[in-house]
Amino acid sequence: MTATGTSLGAATRLALLLATLLVTLTACEAPADDDSNAGAPAVVTDALLDALTEAQALHHAADRQLAAGDRAAAAASVARVLEVRFPPGATDGDDVLLDARARLARLHLAAGEVAAALTVIDAGLTAPRESFFLGNLHMVAGEAHVAHADTLRATDAVAADHELRAGLRAYERSIAIMARVQQRILEENRR
Fold first, then answer.
1. 49-104 tens-digit pLDDT
2. Helices 10-28, 46-67: inter-axial angle, 10-degree rounding
3. Which residues contact 45 (CB under 8 A, 6 or more apart)?
4. Which domains does the chain have, with CATH numbers?
5. Residue 135: which residues within 8 A CB-CB, separation 6 or more?
């Protein structure tokens, strides 16, 4: 995280996701006499690409707003990513939304808005599947709880200790999710 609270490479990760989807789409367009993809549903749709492009544009806008020193406008742009409509069942859309939640929460943390960060985080922690992006959101939850502990330390040591433990539990969940995701990837690559 930088001093402005940006998630390093958020727009770059989104661009890579979009590029991967475009390659997947191209690969799915097999010649008519090639039945290797027969019966496989088209994963990438125009609706998904449109939504990904909209989210990417909003992240780029946030990057420029941060560069101009306008953190509030950047946070508003990232918050708009959470309003992007992805096709039902689009796991890539779920990932984009989780990534946007993490970035928005970090922007709130950089502004000292711990409660706002925790609200943004909590709304994403019920994601239906484990992914790198869910693990990352749990890591940001840990950062938020630790930041909250720091603000409480001078006035309420018991509450600060409680928040610190909540932060450590969030870090542990992040690590566990990342380990399971990595294991799943290894197993898929062995097939």
1. 999 999 999 999 999 999 999 999 999 999 999 999 999 988 999 999 999 999 99
2. 160
3. 87
4. 10-190 (1.25.40.10)
5. 173, 174, 175, 177, 178, 181
Place of tokens 């008519």: 32
Token readout for 151 is 């603000």
Sign of the alpha-carbon torsion through 173, 133, 178, 189: positive
Closest CA to 124 of 114, 111, 139, 110: 139
| CA dist list (Å): 52 to 20, 81, 88, 123, 132 | 12, 9, 14, 20, 18
Residues 8-46: pLDDT tens digits? 465 555 544 544 444 333 333 333 344 444 333 436 889
Residue ranges in 29-156 assigned as alpha helix (H): 46-67, 71-81, 91-110, 114-122, 132-152
pTM of the model: 0.78
Residue 159: CA atoms inside 13 Å, Cβ hemisphere, count?
Answer: 9
Q: What is the pLDDT of residue 89?
A: 87
Instruction: Please say whether the dihedral angle defined by the alpha carbons of residues 70, 71, 74 and 80, taken in this order, is positive or negative.
Output: negative
Cβ–Cβ < 8 Å for 107, 6: yes
d(CA 144, CA 121): 9
